[in-house]
């Protein structure tokens, strides 16, 4: 039953992906409202894709909630960024970093969805290769995001140490905390 549900969700996600790509191609680059709408559409697409990938990797329907958890972490990160910007008086830097996060999500949605859709729709023999492709794309996009944020910090004449602290506290720590929670939950003997 899980396989049928995943295949149906994969087909729906493929249709939504086509809609988002069409919207992206037809949007005017200077129109801020359209860019904001595209960012929201791409965030929904990325969340569904994260959920699909997690469900495919674990074989559990409950793993579809990973996309919702990921979006929640993104919003908490943005709230931390805005609080830090208010405290440090670097409002323009925070706005630029939030824009970079939106760019990374939109780029990840456009670049990563086809590989995840293929991964959820193939037989287990080809599973390993596509899983590595998805992992490689995720790492490559994260490195591009890191380079982009480093450039923003350097352009604003903010110390690289502050960038490193931002990276550890805002970008990496939430995912480490979730990973520790999941590993601690799954290693309990009563589960």
Which features would summarize this protein structure in a list?
191 residues; mainly alpha
Structural class: mainly alpha
Poorly predicted runs of 5 or more residues: none
Strand content: under 5%
Given the structure, what is the number of helices? 6
Number of domains: 1
What's the story with the biggest beta sheet?
none
| Pattern of helices and strands | HHHHHH
What oligomeric state do these chains adopt? single chain
Estimated radius of gyration: 18 Å
Distance between the first and last residues' Cα: 23 Å
What's the shape?
Answer: globular
What's the layout of helices and strands?
Blueprint lengths: L1 H25 L5 H27 L7 H23 L2 H31 L5 H29 L4 H27 L5
Give a verbal description of the structure.
- The mean pLDDT is 78.
- It is globular and about 50 Å long.
- The protein has helices at 2-26, 32-58, 66-88, 91-121, 127-155, 160-186.
- Helix 5 (127-155) runs antiparallel to helix 6 (160-186).
- It has one domain (2-186).
- It has six helices and no strands.
- It starts with a helix and ends in a 5-residue tail after the last helix.
- It is mainly alpha-helical and 191 residues long.
